[in-house]
Structure formats: C-alpha cells, structure tokens
Amino acid sequence: MTEPGPEEYTPDPLTPVLTRRWLLPESWTLRHYTELGGYEALDTAFATDPADLVSLVKDSGLRGRGGAGFPTGMKWSFIPQPKPGEEPTAATKDAPQFKPKYLVINADEGEPGTCKDVPLMMADPHSLIEGCIITSYAIRANFCAIYVRGEVVHALRRLHWAVKEAYDAGHLGRDIHGSGFDLDIVVHAGAGAYICGEETALLDSLEGRRGQPRLKPPFPATAGLYAAPTVVNNVETIATVPSIVAGGKDWFRTMGRERSPGPKIYSLSGHVERPGQYEAPLGTTLRELLEMAGGMKDGIPLKFWTPGGSSTPLFTAEHLDVPLDFEGAAEAGSMLGTTALMIFNETVSVPWAVMKWTEFYEHESCGKCTPCREGCYWLAGILRRLTEGRGTESDIDTLLDVCSNVLGRSFCALGDGAVSPITSGIKYFRQEFLDLCADQQSPASETPVLAGAH
Amino acid sequence: MTSTEDVARRSSTGRTVDEVDLSIFDGQRERAAAIVARYPQPRSALLPLLHLVQHVEGHVGRAGVAFCADVLDITPAEVSAVATFYTMYKREPVGEHLVSVCTNTLCAALGGDDIYAAVRERLGGIGHEETSGTPGEPGSLTIEHAECLAACDLAPVLTVDYEFFDRQTVDSALEILDALQRGEKPHPTRGAPLTDFRSVELLLAGFFDEPEVGGAAANAGPSADPSTLAGARLAEERGWTAPPMPERGPDRTTESTTLPGGAS
Questions:
Q1: Which residues of A touch B149 (CB under 8 A)?
Q2: Do B150 and A192 touch (CB under 8 A)?
Q3: Is the dihedral of CA A357, A363, A365, A371 positive or negative?
Q4: Cβ contact B243–A342 (<8 Å)
Q5: Is A113–B152 a contact, with Cβ atoms under 8 angstroms apart?
Q6: What's residue A450's pLDDT?
Q7: What is the predicted pLDDT for the residue at B219?
Q8: Residue A141 falls within a domain, yes or no?
Q9: CATH of the domain at A291
Q10: Is A16 within the bounds of a domain?
C-alpha cells in the first residue's frame, strides 16, 4: 500500500466530495454538474475494461454506505460473468452468467435519523446517475432501477428531471458516448414500507409484490431481480463511484482510515446548534463533528446518541471520541450504520425514546417471521406500560428475554435492529428504567397485567 | 406471463371484471400501458399502477384493485395482498390533502408529538388516517402520524401531499392547516408549489412531466435547505476541501486489498 500516513498528509476536517456542488444555485441541473467535471469520469470508465473497474473500486476500499459496510467492489465481483470467449451452450444458456444483469439503487431511505440520500438526490442527482452508468458498465447491466421511497416527492421530481436531462445529452440510452454500451434507468417510487430498505425485500417490492425479505442464499448477486444477477447498492455508495474513477484509488484513500477509506456524509440531527450534513473523512469523531456543528443546543449536556440510525446500539457521552468508521463503531459496541447521528440532550427520557423507536419497528415489521412480528409487538406493549408508570422491575428482564429471542432469530436484520435501542438503552441507563417502576412495588400493582393484551 | 402486447390487447374501454365496473379507468389505459412498458417484466408495474389508481379514485378501492388485476392479468387477491401491505395505499378515500406528521423519536422529542396532538385537536379530535371534511371537496384533510421522513436535520417536519414543511412548531402547523382548509396552498419549505393528494399520486405513478402535476416543477425550490448545507458552508468559510485529485487518470492497479466481509 502506498497510502500516505498521517505524518505525510492529513485531510481537512471536512472533505466535500459528494457535497461539493450543493452550494451552487440550481445545483441539480446538468449544466452545473458538467461545469464541475460531471460525466467526465464516464469516458475514463468506457476506456477501461469492466473487470478493471471492478478491481479499481475493490482496491479503493469503498464500502457500502447503506448501513452494512460491505466492500462494494467485492459485491460487484460476485456477479457471474461469462469467461473470455465463453458462449452459451444448450447446457449453460440459463446459467447466471448468461442472464441479463441488473443494477438496483436502494434509495428507500427510512432508517430513523437517516437523511443523507434524499438531500443528495435533491441537490446533485447527476452524481448518482453517472455512478449508475459506470456501475452498470462495470457489471454489464443494461437496466437500472432507482427505488426511491414514495414519500419524498421532490427528490423523485429532481431525479426524474436529471434522468431526462441525461437521456437528452446522450449519457443514457443507446450507444452511450459511442461506447456501444446501452443503459436505461427507471426512477421507481415505493409506497411506504421501511422493510423495503432491506435489499431482498426491495427486490420483491420492485417485482410488484409485498416487500418481504427473501431467504439468503441465494444472494442477489446470483438470483436478484427476476432471479437474475443483481447488484443492490445505496445512493451514497454509487454517487461516490465517479469520484473514484476520476481521482483513483490512492486519492480516495487519502481520506478516512485504512479499512474504512473515503469521505462520508455524517447527518447530525437533534439537540445540536447547527444540525445538517457534514461530509468528513471516515473516522471523524462526534466530538469533532459537534465542534463544527456549534456544540450542543443551548449548552444542555449530551445524554445519548446513535452513530448510525435507531438500529445501531446507543452511545453516550463516554463515546465522544470513538472514531466513526466501520471498525471504530463496532469496537465500541455499536455499528456505523448510516452515520445518522441523532443527538439527544439530558431532557430526553431514554425509556420513552426506546419506546417510540420500538413502536416504529412494531409498525414496520413485515410480518413474515414470528420472532420479529410477535417480538416487536410485545416489546412495544411492555415499553408502553413501563413509560406509563405501570411497569415492574421484572419487565426489564422480560424485555431482555424477548430481545434475546429476536436477535439473530429473525428472518432479516430488522429484528436485530429493533432490539438495539432496547438492549443498549438498558445497558447504559438501567436505573432510568428502574425509576419508572419504583413506585410500582405496592401490593396493588402485583396483579399481573398482560401488556398489550386487549 | 403477461406481456406488453397483452396489456395493449386488454386496453379496450368499458370493461367489467368480476362484476366491477372499470369505466372510471377508461382514460388511464394508455398510461397503464406506458407504466408496464418501463420494466423488463410487467408485474413490476404494480406499485406505480396502484399510485395511478389513487390518482383516479383518491384511494385504492375495489375498482382500482380490479383495474390493476385486469392490466397485469393477475388475480384481484394478488393485487389486494400488495395494496394492503404498503402504508401509502389508502383504503378509505383521502381528502384534498394528506397531512403527515412525523412522530418518530427524534421529531417527537423536538415537538412532533405536540404538533400531531394539536393537529388532531384542531380537526375535531380525528385520528390516524381519518378525514376532516368530505373527501373530494376542497379543504378536506386526511391526517396521519408518519414514520421517519428522512429530514431529521430539519426536525420536526410534516408533509402535505408528501411535500416537506420543515422545522415546524404547533403554531406554524396549525397555520398550515387553516390555510389548507381555506382552500389556499401554502408553499412547501423545499420543493414545488403544492397541488393536491391525487395530483401527486400521478407523479408517483411516474408521470412527472404532465402539466397537471406541475410539469418542470423539479426546478422549483432551493438546491437544499440552508441548514442541510451547514457542513458545505462551513467548509467553504474555512477553505476546507477534499484532497486534490491527481492530474493523471485513475490508478488502475489490480493489486488485491483484503477487507473484512462487512456486517451484512
């Protein structure tokens, strides 16, 4: 590796790459995109062998920005391709390498706290479109669907407009830039279901079905959309690709850390002076971000926060210096998730916040598997009872017991995410849960109440 | 499996399916065929078709379900199974506008719960997915509490017909309600001029360019909310930039890099 060490080069505290055009008036237009180098990476890509593009992205170390952090180039490399000179035979004509390939963009941004992809699509949709073209070329797909949650109408409008501009300018359609490569992009509106952010549920939804997750394997790389090889990537991941093609892997690795390189949009929300989107190298800490965001609102101290949405275990003030990259967040007992930093001050009750999040998971559980469907229902009921002051100390044990039966036993990660706020909330703030039960020790309250039974 | 040709063949008007009169969809057959033609396989058209149904009916009713089933040559049960799964497909007629208040944790902590309570009270104590006034008449409002709307840096937020009204207070939200009930269309914080629920559903079906949904309304509104730009503006003020890209093209060496498998 030739990555410069910190003694050689330290990037600025903020490194606008994805957000570098956002300050322009009408930044979403093709005119402004091309003024700042837009669609130039496309020609570089078309002059490169698709397999080398996959290697470039692999070597850049880009990891998925949708929550799981899976290495993007590696995901692309799982798409089966015919060997050089391999032609379909009677025996292999239905094999995955001879099926059409698809690129599907996960723009179903709905993880509580997450608000990076919607502003990106509103302010700079062409970066996503150029990324889609390069990625589709790399994995040899001729159809790409951008699945946007339905509730963000203006982001859909901007994206649709940008796709139209790209068609008119010859960046989409047949024989793009004379490369012989064809690509169609469809902007597809969802219909309000958090679960569709799970990639296989998204594929089912895109096929016109209930958005419920599929059993894996087979993974989308071999049996995705229409059971054909499919890459599903997050908006921010794919919008990063043109910069990697333009700047190269070493440039990309000058930002971030060894195993989590590159810039990342950190979304600060809640009790901070200047909430918003801060694009900084991966590994930036909350302390640094808070300084840039003007500190805690009205100076009221920090109580708890999420590093990457409500599905990532809570952090507290003791985690201010945790480097926020995939390793740093995991080593400190949470997950980087979507870098959705929801920040709560001392005025917010942890059991209440946890109860609200659990009601969210209860509503959004797709109902396919029992642990998640029933677990979220009962967890929400118990938490409601607790926060209404009708809980008992044993409710805390019941909560943890139910959580242990949901975590790792659900069909997809929604169940795992649902228990994160509960288990981490109790871990760091058990006394607050106990305090809610403190006045519930009188004999009158010992008659068992079935939470949620009605 | 149904094909685009099949859809065209079934696009005769005045059809009746399972004794449901589909004549209100007579003007939509061309649009339905256009939706189906967008996708490699027709069934992918179902979600946009259901949005088209809501454009016509103001909700998904029996006729809408039968229409989708007719277009895609699947059973009404298959359509219903999908329509009932998704929050945005409404089973009762929606008012002129749909007001959605985010009551997820972060918005709620910043006032979202109070806003939702005030909205309910102002509209006579109606609840989730209930309507004040008569659907189809001006000033009728359907309300709902919404899950996270992906605008947390602008909390608390509400949307009217899925257009953002950011950084709300109880007072500002009630002013919006009053204006809507008077038949006015307050301008969203970001985004295009307000239309109504049914017009936006046409847009969600993928028809962005028609005059009735605002045509080139993509060009309305700011690039992003000013506070969303907090980071970009701070970087500009302090002269912070990403490292300069090398002049030469990308380094395309193929040496392998070992990365862990990620959390998925």
A1: 151-152
A2: no
A3: positive
A4: no
A5: yes
A6: 62
A7: 80
A8: yes
A9: 3.10.20.600
A10: no
The pLDDT of residue B262 is: 31
Q: Does B109 touch chain A (CB under 8 A)?
A: yes
Question: Could you tell me if residue A86 is inside a domain?
Answer: no
Q: How far is CA A280 from the centre of its chain?
A: 17
Q: Which of B150, B204, B249 faces A114 most closely, judged by CB atoms? A: B150
Percentage of chain B lying above the pLDDT 70 cut: 86
Domain finish residue from A237, A254, A271: A254
Residue A87 lies in a domain: no
Chain B residues closer than 8 Å to A208 by CB:
43-47, 72, 82
Do A56 and A177 lie in one domain? The reply is yes
A357 chain-B contacts, CB cut-off 8 A = 104-105
CATH code: domain of residue A384: 1.20.1440.230
Interface test with A, best of B107, B257, B258 (most A CBs within 10 A): B257
- CB-based contact (8 Å) between B193 and chain A? no
* pLDDT surpassing 80 at residue B257: no
A395 and A336 both lie in a single domain? no
CATH of the domain at A214: 3.40.50.11540
Question: Do residue A230 and residue A362 come from a single domain?
Answer: no
- Whether B77 contacts chain A with CB within 8 A: no
Distance (Å) from the alpha carbon of B214 to chain A's nearest alpha carbon? 10
Contact A191 B150 (CB under 8 A): no
pLDDT of residue A439: 65
A193 to B85: CB separation less than 8 angstroms, yes or no: yes
Compute the average pLDDT of residues B211-240: 87
Give me the domain span that covers residue A377.
Answer: 350-446
Return the residue in A27, A29, A151, A346 with the most chain B beta carbons within 10 A, the one to mutate for interface testing. Answer: A151
ipTM score of complex: 0.94
3-class DSSP state for residue A63? strand
Set of chain B residues whose Cβ sits within 8 Å of the Cβ of A255: 242-243
- Taking chain A (454 residues) in runs of 10, the rounded mean pLDDT of each run is 59 97 94 92 97 98 96 98 93 94 98 97 97 98 98 95 96 97 98 97 98 96 98 98 97 97 98 98 98 97 98 98 98 98 98 98 97 98 96 96 97 97 98 86 54 58
- Same domain? For A174 and A314 the reply is no
Is the Cβ pair A247, B246 closer than 8 Å? Answer: yes
Say whether both A359 and A389 belong to one domain.
yes
pLDDT of the residue at B258 = 31
Check CB contact under 8 Å for A360 and B47.
Answer: no
> Of A345, A362, A394, which marks where a domain is finished?
A345
pLDDT at B31 over 50: yes
- Please report the residues numbered 155 through 184 in chain B whose beta carbons come closer than 8 angstroms to any beta carbon of chain A: 155, 159, 161-164
Domain count, chain A: 3
Domains and CATH numbers, chain B: 4-83 (1.10.10), 97-200+211-217 (3.40.30.10)
Give the chain B residue nearest A265 (alpha carbons): B231
Smallest Cα distance from B123 to chain A, Å:
23
CB contact under 8 A, B82 and A208: yes
Give the mean pLDDT of chain B: 89
